[in-house]
Write a structure and sequence with these properties.
alpha/beta
Amino acid sequence: MSEACLSPKPSRRSDVAPFLAMDVLSAAARLEGEGRTIIHMEVGQPSAPAPQLALTAARAALEHGRLGYTEARGIRSFRERLVRHYRDTYSVEIDESRVVATTGSSAGFNLAFLAAFDAGDRIALTSPGYPAYRNIIRALGLVPVEIEVGAETRWCLTPDLLEAAQKDGPIKGVLVASPANPTGTMMTPQALSELVRYCDGNGIWFISDEIYHGLVYGTEQATALSTSHNAIIINSFSKYYCMTGWRIGWMVLPECLVRPVERIAQSLYISPPELSQIAATAALDATDELELVKAGYAKNRELLLQALPELGFDKLLPLDGAFYVYADTRRFSNDSLAFTKAMLEEAGVAATPGADFDISNGSAYTRFSFAGSNENMVEALTRLKNWLA
């Protein structure tokens, strides 16, 4: 029987671009199924397991035997522990009523877009930027406004760039990640504050993606909450806390959005997984273990910053945080999609083409993730050296 749809057909909103990093992951899995050994540098997934405190708490919950629904906003003890996290980490005071547990940061973005915007509203994003932003925005009937950023602003959005973008129509929201994916660059506290203040002064929702907080190397991180309690904060346990598969994250919301988000979450998700909330609460106390994992990333970062230019990747973006290197690959190819495909097939190294992150100029760039082990980074560099020779 043919699998083609005759009638009815898929919705127009479903016609979003593929997430190329996941396509590369699928291609790598196919090669591994054929017996190949692939070094994975395509996805931003920590190689370390969840911290022991999280695993111990999860095991204890499983022994109890019953896991069920929680409040749509999450377990109160989880929310209260996050209040302490903001006090200890940023010296920012928030009320637990403004904290919402989510099924990963992805659910947080869905909830923020649905609660803060109406169909047709324009939301500003940086380009390069995380592709799922624009895909979710389009699928929800909103309009992504991708603003090209470059070296002149350290690859960060500024009030001037945002002001210029409004000449084509009002911007209702701004979404910024700092540290950013794919660039790894981070806004200075001053630059972040200036952008947040501009949005507050112009009636624009500011959504701050802070999922790479904690993974910062030699620079200062700031939360948008330090400037404004109108900001919508989205964070996750997937990156610093090494809990990707647990699908747990959180939001900190302005008071006026708490109930709208709660109502939408009740219908879309009922509640985040109770087991994941329990484990995540414990993970917030696992700093010593997680800092050792971060030290491994820092070692990988230093290795790549030294070795990649020696291989010919001599134009790298500022790498302030996260675990990505965004490299100009025009020395080797003007088509990063073809370049990364050949790299995978011939060298056994999986990386993500820049076209995933930047529709206009991404063909000139490739993203390498250094979230894996140091041994894998050394092996990847050896393979690339032999392949490029």
